[in-house]
Design goal:
The protein is α+β, with helices and mostly antiparallel strands. The chain is built from three helices and eleven strands; from the N terminus they run αβαββαββββββββ. Helix content is 23%, strand content 27%. The structure holds 2-oxoglutaric acid and fe (ii) ion. 2-oxoglutaric acid (AKG) binds next to strand 10 and strand 11. This is SM-20-related protein.
Length: 213
Amino acid sequence: MSPACAELYDTIADALVDQGYYYTSRPLPGLPTTTLQQRIAQLDAEAALQRAGIGRHQDHQINNSVRRDSIRWLSSEHTAEREYLEWMDGLRSGINERLFMGLFDYECHFAHYPPGAFYQRHLDAFQGRTNRVLTTVYYLNDQWQTDQGGELLLYANDSDRVLEQVLPETGTLLVFLSDRFPHEVLETHRDRYSIAGWFRVNNSLNTQIDPAN
Ligand SMILES: O=C(O)CCC(=O)C(=O)O
Ligand SMILES: [Fe+2]
């Protein structure tokens, strides 16, 4: 691990302890941008993204009033995707070494929100009822302007207080405890690309489905 990474993991771990989330709009060392932008553009052109639903397996359903994005899960078969997954695996060990969170694996999907798309306020996990413990969102849109909508609003738990209003600008990364922070994606006025992911614990006793993803 390079000193730059160790320092970054310290910063992220400290932020998670202090406030439950970490947010930076500064591109991070080793985290790809251009290759992932090219990859999602290619997938989009090939119509390889599919409308996201809510609920899992037999409960999976498309609900236009809740979310209107299209997604595709990343896999390590493609170079750009693998580099992203490897970076997140480094972060996983970095956080485990510092906070003993027992993060076991990581899953993530590309998401495309076309103009008019949004995702209503939701929690990624309910307390004690999921194995998703830490959410990441990474953005891939150059030159996002404040009048283009599509911001992510991160709320304080059980209140309407907005903690962060995040422009989905290339290189911006947000990491937060999945069961603590309600959030929403405001209606976007231009195509909006991102990667949403979840670090999970290995909780095989847990049979509950995850809400909303
Ligand atoms: O794209 C974003 O800003 C957040 C997406 C999200 O909340 C989710 O996929 O659960
Ligand atoms: Fe979410």
